[in-house]
Amino acid sequence: MKEKLQEIFRDVFDDETIEITREMTADDIESWDSLTYFRLIMVIEKEFHIKFTTEKVSNMKTVGEMMDYIASNSGEK
Amino acid sequence: MKDTSLIVPEKGVQMELNELKRLIRDTDVADVNSLLKYAGRLSKYFAGKQMGKRIAVLGTCNIQYFTRALQCILFRDGIEATFYEGEYDGIKMDVLGEESGFYSFEPEIVVLIPDYRDIKKFPPLLSSLETVSEYISAYYKDMRNIWQHINEKLPNAQIVMANYVVPIDRSLGNLEVNYGFSRQVILQELNLKISREHPRYVTIVDMEYQAALIGKMNWFDESGYMLNKSPFSLSETGRVAELFAKIIEAYCGKVRKCLVLDLDNTLWGGVVSEEGALGIKIDPNDAVGEAYLSFQTYVKRLNERGIILAVCSKNDMEIAKEPFVKNRNMVLKLENFACFHANWRNKAENIRQIAQEINIGLDSIVLFDDNPAEREIVKMQLQEVLVIEVPQEPAEYVRTLETSNAFCWTALTKEDLSRSETYKADVRRGELQQAADNYDEYLIQLKMKGKVKRTTESDLLRVSQLVNKSNQFNLRTMRYTEAEITALSKEPDVALLSAVLSDKFSNYGIVSCAILKRIEKECFIDTWVMSCRVLKRGMELMMFQKIYDIAIEWGCECIKGEYIPTEKNGMVHGLLTDLGFDRTAVNDNGCEDYSYHVQNIPTLKFYIEEDVNL
């Protein structure tokens, strides 16, 4: 799942060099603003067939939190 | 006015931009992620530059995704644009605020995206219909006030506005549709009022239709609205932007007029050369036959609204024509087609010929052909042609063509409605020409009647359509929105001319128009266009006579003209010389200046009788 998520990050942020880590936040990726963030959510939802709750989208801070949510909702490890 | 000249990028950058354009072309607009990713790349090139069309986007919700997608799609289709993005919740703030950056941006196109959530106060339940209609009038007045305000300050701007999408929630449930005071009915009625009463400088985009098409459960994304005020689901952004793009493109003269159709397995099921004219599937009692029939019925309606039809089929001519003559189930008849190409040559070559015969550009053509191999050839060889991705299932042909939005026009005029009739009459004119001894004799026998006059208000719509759709007989290819044309018609030193023509077979309506500007002692031909259906009839001579008369009326010493070459207007390169103008300059960019001294009284011979009844 991490590889798939990494591919999504690279695609959405249009940067082939991104290596995601659990600790990563918006501050670590230059083009991460609210516009790209919602786009990222849209693509993850589609690719993993899940739906983030409004609360989750508002409060997620790290890539780790994102991975945990995907794991517990999509079954992909 | 601001300088809108395009910044020509360096060669390396140009190549990267071409590559980006190719990527966007290969992207389905429903793939919003890719579209927005490319939009991000595009904005790096365009950051801080003023170029092309100036488009302002104002909305009461989040419009940022929309604007980026719109820029991307317009770029794909060859239109560069600079954008002004309104403030969030900005329609009123931007439009009514005097100090707003919106006005100093001087937009040519103003996109408005209101939202049903803007309307806060609805009439109480059980209100009388009278009260309800007062509320609706008040909502409408609010909207009209915004339009008028924009129009007063920006008389040249065309407003392109979405109507309201009626929401999912109905507190009265199914009862809503039973009561005129319900929110659902009120919003629908407001949309109808907007459709019926909007002024010409406003074009309405049917967002409600689009939402219904997608299905409102997918259209609305409530969470997205709470999080970032998206009026509709983020994943719909590309499709919505394309709807607006098509209209903006139409105002830039990019309008498709002709549908080229294949025959076997496109207009009927089966292969006519094998199954025969009576064996093909077109029987209303057969499910498959009915599918093809419904497509023919739809195509016939397109023809009635003025879309030119042509056949391009790999067949023998005689066999291909047989079903139209012998099979009584056929809805389309031979006379519905302006052009019939059935042979074994390359389709791209055939389509190029069709364009020539009908006198339109390849970029006016839409191809509908069930054979993917043929589509691929045309796509490769004629990039300007819009090739529809035809599904395997004939029952889905109608929706496929409809949702391609291939024929997005700025207006519908009575000239459009009579167009298919004129193409039928072309056959009879062809016979007349064959029988006549020479061309002059043919022109005389046509018994043409015409008149060139100052454009009146009721003709402005057609004039603006001609100015925006004409590519070939067009001296300078200036495009003006309806709003601009209306503004020009009110200027004292501007004359708008329009010419009508009829002959013994057809009444063409308005076929040519010109915009003349008085600049001190000179009369400048700012625009002169003519419909390609009436070439070589002498109409241009009758027009020039009137242009000359106006120059005299204005007390001008000379008439100035300019030829600005484009890929398509080569046919008018020699027009001014033929009329007796002197070429006074050839500029580096290929533009040519012409001058005509009014001392030379024109002696023009044409066979169009002045129609005194007009």
Would you write up a description of this structure?
The complex is a heterodimer of chains A (77) and B (614). Chain A has 4 helices and no strands. Chain A has 77 residues and is mostly helical. In chain A, helix 1 (2-12) packs across helix 2. Chain A is globular and about 30 Å long. The model of chain A has no long low-confidence stretch (mean pLDDT 92). Chain B has an 8-stranded mixed β-sheet with strand order 16-17-15-14-13-12-11-18, sandwiched between helices. Chain B has a 5-stranded parallel β-sheet with strand order 2-1-3-4-5, sandwiched between helices. A 5-stranded parallel β-sheet of chain B has the order 8-7-6-9-10, sandwiched between helices. Chains A and B meet through helix 2 and helix 3 of A and helix 2 and helix 10 of B.
Topology:
The complex is a heterodimer of chains A (77) and B (614).
Chain A: H1 2-12, H2 34-48, H3 54-59, H4 63-74
Helix pairs in contact in A: 1-2
Chain B: H1 11-25, H2 32-46, E1 53-59, H3 64-76, E2 81-85, H4 91-96, H5 101-104, E3 109-113, H6 129-153, E4 158-162, H7 183-197, E5 202-205, H8 207-214, H9 216-219, H10 222-228, H11 237-251, E6 258-261, H12 272-275, H13 287-304, E7 308-314, H14 317-326, E8 337-343, H15 347-358, E9 365-368, H16 372-381, E10 386-387, H17 397-403, H18 414-435, H19 439-445, E11 448-454, H20 460-469, H21 482-489, E12 494-502, E13 507-519, E14 522-530, H22 539-553, E15 558-563, H23 575-578, E16 582-586, E17 592-597, E18 608-610
Helix pairs in contact in B: 1-2, 1-3, 2-3, 3-11, 6-7, 20-21
